Amino acid sequence: MLNEFIKFSDWSITTLIALSPLVGMLLALVFPKPAENSRTIAWGVFAWSLVPLGLTLFLWLSGGFNPALASVAGDQAMIQQVDRVRWVPFFNADYFVGLDGLNFPLVFLTTALTPVCILAAFRIKHRQNVYLALMLLLESAMLGYFVSLNFLLLFLFWEFSLVPMFFIINNWGGENRRYAAFKFFVYTMAGSVAMLLIFEFIYLATGTFDLVVLSRLGQGLPVDPALLAPKLGAGYTSGATLQSMLFSAVEDIGLTSILGTSNGTPAAIVFWSIFVAFAVKLAVWPLHTWQPDTYENAPTSGSMIVSAVMSKMGAYGMIRIMIMLFPQQTKFFAPALAILALASILFGAYAGLAQINLKRLIAYASINHMGYVLLGLAAVASAAPESLGDLAVNIRASAMNGVQAQMVAHGFSTAALFFLAGELYERTGTYQLDQFGGLRKVMPIFAGIMGVAMFANLGLPGLAGFVGEFFIFRGAWGTQPVITTIAVLGLIVTALVLIRMYQKIFYGPVNHKLTNLPDIKVGDWAFNVTLPLIIVLLVFGIFPKPLMDLSNYAATVMAQVFTNL
After folding, report:
1. pTM of the prediction?
2. Which of 98, 265, 383, 459 satisfies CB 3.0 to 4.6 Å to 79 for a cystine?
């Protein structure tokens, strides 16, 4: 019955998941007398935010999304729950959305965390209905980005996500909120403009924005010529690749005198341009400088959502666009990506040691963790030693599975840490670590919950953070052994950073000004916010198979692509 409903429904479940938050946004904005009805609006928005989560779980648990559907001889996992409608005929662009093993884990992350972030936003009192409406708009933009399979649509959602986050930081943030909001917007917009110009060139060379078609071209797989309408170059012929079509377009406009006659140069330039755009969002060193200011000055729920989900938009863009469209360039430049990953890992760890502000410390720890994500992506694409033989596919798939698991686990653990940091601020009026001390005696339940979040964040076995790190290192050892060995140092320093943070807050002499702080109590608001986060970290730490199954087949397909190059 459930499968029949999914199959024959006139509504695409994917579209409903992505766009349903907009209904809640409108209801929050038009509800009469928002100041007097703030409690009703807040609970109504929270209830509506459960709709996308319910639809996602419905697909997952009913079999409407089957992660085992993968074409091992093809270019990617099969796209499911597709909705495709002609959108902008002039640009040969469709409204094209769907789900596969590359985006479904992030759809789950987004739909699961947004209700928690909305619940955390109940402390917002000034124009609360507008704030909550912006949170739902942000959720819809992020979901639309993750499920889009046409670049124009993906870019539209990418840009839309900037607007609500800018206003959330600018209007409800901390002391330096305007500077942080401006910096966040400028950095991301600069990357966006570069990416748009590059894709305009790709469109002129191929005549399509379809990411599935472009990924087939990138991998040298046959494409129906009717799907392409190139404006430059010699057009598509049998055996043509995205790399060759880009070079043909460069020849057509007479740029070979500048770029040279190497067939791979235009593709390499496009590759690095795309990487930079997504590396800004992922906060890869040295493009990270917007991130600590943003995380520090955003309101608590804003810090939660931008660190837990928005940063993953950068990693997903690298997977869906950079890697799938340019596998040869990704493999060639994989050592450089691994070095940048290592720089992020070590910089995030050592910079975290120097922080005295709790939110900035968590921000630098996030830079460190996203470095592991980039290391995993580099491991997927890196050349494998011949001694690995048939194990090369398994090693690469392990790294890709680790990337997906790391993104989900980091999302839940860092959201918990930022929420608890916000609760400490509400109780003490400061984020300065030297103002705390001995709070384990004053708030034992609070200390226990933050301990679980902290250990999950640093990758303690039995908690979700361990799973992703383990699989990333398993894959990276096989293809990038030297870089991985050095990266272990970053793992050790990260543990020192987080344990030092925990000691400064909860151990040592009690600050006499903080002896009467209220603890978290079972059933109260703060407990209800943190409970689902802790449950997910425990469940996926002890039993990660359901999470790993979501991406395993897609990861295996991607691993085979690079093994066959």
Report:
1. 0.90
2. 98
